[in-house]
Amino acid sequence: MSGFSFQIRATDGRARAGLIRTPRGEIRTPAFMPVGTAATVKAMLPESVAETGADIILGNTYHLMLRPTAERIARLGGLHRFMNWPGPILTDSGGFQVMSLAALRKLSEEGVRFKSHIDGSEHFLSPERSMEVQRLLGSDIVMAFDECPALPADAAEIARSMRLSMRWAARSKAAFDGSGGAALFGIQQGGLSREFRAESSEKLREIGFDGYAVGGLAVGEGQEAMFATLDFAAGMLPADRPRYLMGVGKPADIVGAVERGIDMFDCVLPTRSGRTGQAFTRRGVLNIKNARHADDSRPLDEACSCPACRGYSRAYLHHVFKAREIIQSMLLTWHNLQYYQDLMADIRAAIAGGRFAAFARDFRARQEAGDDGGL
Are 238 and 215 spatial neighbours (Cβ–Cβ below 8 Å)? Predict the structure, then answer.
């Protein structure tokens, strides 16, 4: 198999179920990508991540270029071999992390000069350097370099940032060589503005990309504003290419975004929550540290097949969190990732069966009913 392709296999309203083909394997969409920021999905072995049903994971350009460096990873055979993940990997461009993490950053037309949050060393990231780093990593889906301003921001700032990102998108395309059959995704920006999103989309279409992301959401604007923006933003992107909503999100965010035509998602929420005692279930979210779980012999979720639910009670999970045992993070992270992949599988099946609207209604009703905690 060579090259990159996307096929829509079923639609239900604006929801789409499809298949992305890459040289390293197929990705069933809608897809959720576990986040492996520093070449690891925290608290998980790669084969365990695959066992949950994940087809693709995400790596981070900013973190990997700083440590252990993209050049070292390339010398060691690329990111897939380095982290023992044979399937597809999407790498973000590093732009968001530069803006949110780096100290003493200086933005210019050329790129961003910044000091590492790790050791204060100075670095420069530009569209060309981002493409180089992602090529050295051996990414299967490469993201164009962009700037992502935090919301709220005034219209002038949103417009300035979006137009800079579009110029950077053109430079990213020019510097991208597609080695190894990699694909390049452009990133739509424009805040909550229909006008700016339309301008961004038109420019991205002119440049031409293998897939398109909706960027600049899930940055503080709230779910209602995000959905209102997706109502028009997703449809501005080419219908025959994958649409990726970056950094989203909560299960309810994912279901609502699929309703609006989104195909791909990533978020640190399931892994980060797993390390802090928060579990996602078919009846909503629960905090295993709460005292009500101390004598509860039930699993987290009776319908879940993960090791935490197959072999351990809520009472045990409550105990290991209170005792701060390492197994706490392992079990809850696996559970959360399993829940997310089960959710995506259920979404795909509902779209294929022409019953996605009913699925979404049932999902919301179960989430609203919540977890009874054995009471």
Answer: no
One domain, residues 164 and 249: yes
**Can you tell me whether residue 345 is helix, strand or coil?**
helix
Contact 297, 315 (CB under 8 A): yes
Domain that holds residue 350: 273-369
Statement to judge: residues 72 and 173 lie in one domain: yes
Question: Are residues 225 and 115 part of one domain?
Answer: yes
What is the value of pTM for the model shown? 0.97
Exposed e or buried b per residue across 232-250, where buried means at least 16 C-beta atoms within 10 angstroms of its C-beta: ebbebbeeebbbbbbbbbb
Active-site residues, by number, are 92, 266
Distance CA 191, CA 180 (A): 34
DSSP of 289-318: TSGGGTT--S-S-TT--SHHHHH--HHHHH
Strand 57-60 and strand 89-92: the pairing is: parallel
Residues 260 and 348 in one domain: no
Q: Cα–chain-centroid distance for residue 221?
A: 18
Other beta carbons within 10 Å of 150: 13
Same domain for 321 and 215: no
Q: Are residues 71 and 164 in the same domain?
A: yes
pLDDT in tens, 72-92: 999 999 999 999 999 999 999
Please check whether residues 289 and 216 belong to one and the same domain.
no
CA distances from 159 to 153, 185, 238, 263 (A): 10, 21, 22, 26
**Which token pair is 220?**
């503080």
**145 plus 54 within the same structural domain:** yes
Distances 32 to 56, 269, 280, 328, 342 between C-alpha atoms, Å: 8, 12, 15, 23, 10
Contact 76, 84 (CB under 8 A): no
Place of tokens 């005292």: 291
List pLDDT tens digits, range 155-176: 999 999 999 999 999 999 999 9
Cis amide prior to 354 (ω within 30 degrees): no
Exposed, middle or buried, 118 (CB in 10 Å: 0-12/13-18/19+)? exposed
DSSP 214-241: E-S-SSSS-HHHHHHHHHHHGGGS-TTS
